[in-house]
Specification:
This protein has a six-stranded antiparallel β-sheet with strand order 3-2-1-6-5-4. Strands 7-8-9-11-10 form a five-stranded mixed β-sheet. It is elongated. β10 and β11 form a beta hairpin. The chain folds into three domains: 156 residues, GAF domain (Beta-Lactamase), CATH 3.30.450.40; 79 residues, Orthogonal Bundle (Helix Hairpins); 147 residues, 2-Layer Sandwich (Heat Shock Protein 90). α6 crosses α10. The chain is an alpha+beta fold and 400 residues long. Helices cover 47% and strands 18% of the residues. The protein is built from eleven helices and eleven strands. The two termini are 23 Å apart.
Length: 400
């Protein structure tokens, strides 16, 4: 059953007054079956029923909507009340009584406060009953309005809860952001401040170039933090990370460039590279390099130093895949579940960043119409990026 219909059934069943309403309906009219039904152009589904006549339709049960009177009630929003089908000048030849063997019937529309038709409150019986009178119809209308009020209140409560959950998450994100950014900017700022104070105190000495290099490295770290914050803002507040395509570069060059940087920085580590690219790819090389650099850096940081980090890039008939694999301690399951969320860091991480690296990497993957996943066990940890060969950046931005 459609998820929306399941929700509608659940909403009606959460209304504590409905069983009492159906009981009063049956007792006051002498009818054997009463129900609250969700009715659309194509479906008739019982949300709550009272079946004293063994009609055989439980809550969640469905009738062919075109075989019911409710099909007409949905169209015209008018009450149908029949004391005795055989004597009724309008409905004596109607197909519904013949199909279901009923002699008396009453149904009123349930109209939500915004004018939306939800369904009906209806009752049927295999014998004649007195229902086509102002008192009975008025009672049914009052009950239908009460049900509509409760359904609307439930919708409003659900919407308010969603808004509250969203605001809570946004508040937590802002608090995390401020706390982590403040913490991670403090160290490079302190480094620059210490270097300046040293130069002001001692003047130009043989240690001055070393101090300047240290200050430059601190500024680079701060710039990287700011770039990550900007990427976070684009991913969360904008239409996603922007891409800049360079058709003159190849993915092989991008991978080789990043690998060489890390080989220079970690000459003691072994990096094995396998590249099998059969066709040119439409990618943002700077962004793919950024993503790959993050994955390779994590593998070198967390991988076992006595085992190589393996990089594999290849194209198949329909996609491009890039993976980075290392040996070492597996990532704990509780960390795997939130590894690509902002401000999250792998347990025991030696990183001094904002915890945005893998989040931004996953956003870069998404911007390319692809995915970034991770597998981690006792044998290895592998991060894998996959995207379609025929990636269309315009289609990515099209409304769904």
């Amino acid at each position: 059953m459609n998820e929306n219909f399941q929700k509608d059934i659940a909403k009606v069943q959460r209304i504590s007054a409905v069983p009492s309403i159906l009981d009063v309906v049956c007792r006051s009219t002498g009818m054997g079956f009463a129900a609250v039904a969700r009715v659309t152009e194509e479906r008739w589904i019982a949300c709550q029923v009272l079946d004293n006549a063994d009609f055989g339709l439980p809550a969640g049960g469905e009738l062919n909507v075109e075989t019911t009177f409710c099909h007409e009630i949905r169209q015209y929003h008018e009450v149908i009340a029949i004391d005795n089908v055989a004597e009724d000048p309008i409905y004596s030849d109607h197909h519904t009584p013949r199909i279901y063997g009923l002699q008396s019937y009453i149904s009123v529309p349930i109209i939500l406060p915004d004018g939306t038709f939800f369904g009906t409150l209806c009752a049927i019986h295999s014998k004649a009953a007195k229902v086509n009178n102002p008192e009975t119809i008025g009672t049914f209308k009052l009950f239908a309005e009460l049900i509509a009020y409760h359904l609307d209140a439930s919708d409003r409560l659900d919407a308010a809860q969603l808004d509250l959950d969203h605001e809570r998450k946004q508040s937590e994100l802002r608090e995390q952001f401020i706390a982590v950014l403040g913490h991670d900017l403090r160290n490079p700022i302190a480094g620059v401040d210490a270097g300046i104070n040293r130069l002001l105190r001692d003047g130009w000495t043989d240690k001055a170039p070393q101090l300047l290099r240290m200050m430059k490295a601190s500024l680079v770290r701060m710039a990287g933090l700011v770039d990550n914050v900007m990427d976070l803002a684009r991913a969360r507040l904008g239409g996603g990370i922007n891409l800049d395509f360079d058709p003159d570069r190849t993915v092989e060059d991008t991978i080789e460039h990043v690998v060489q940087e890390f080989k220079i920085a970690h000459p003691e580590r072994e990096i094995e590279v396998s590249v099998e690219i059969e066709a040119p790819l439409r990618i943002d090389h700077a962004r793919i390099g950024q993503m790959f650099s993050n994955l390779l850096g994590n593998a070198l940081t967390h991988g076992a130093p006595d085992h190589p980090v393996r990089v594999k890039a290849l194209t198949t008939d329909d996609k491009f895949e890039l993976s980075v694999e290392n040996r070492g301690e597996p990532i704990p399951q509780q960390s795997l579940n939130k590894l690509f969320q902002p401000f999250e860091r792998e347990e025991g991480s030696k990183s001094h960043g904002l915890g945005l690296g893998l989040f931004i990497a996953s956003e870069i993957a998404r911007a390319h119409g692809g995915t970034l996943g991770v597998l981690s066990d006792e044998k290895m940890t592998r991060f894998s990026f996959s995207m379609p060969n025929e990636f269309d950046p315009v289609a990515r931005l099209a409304p769904k």
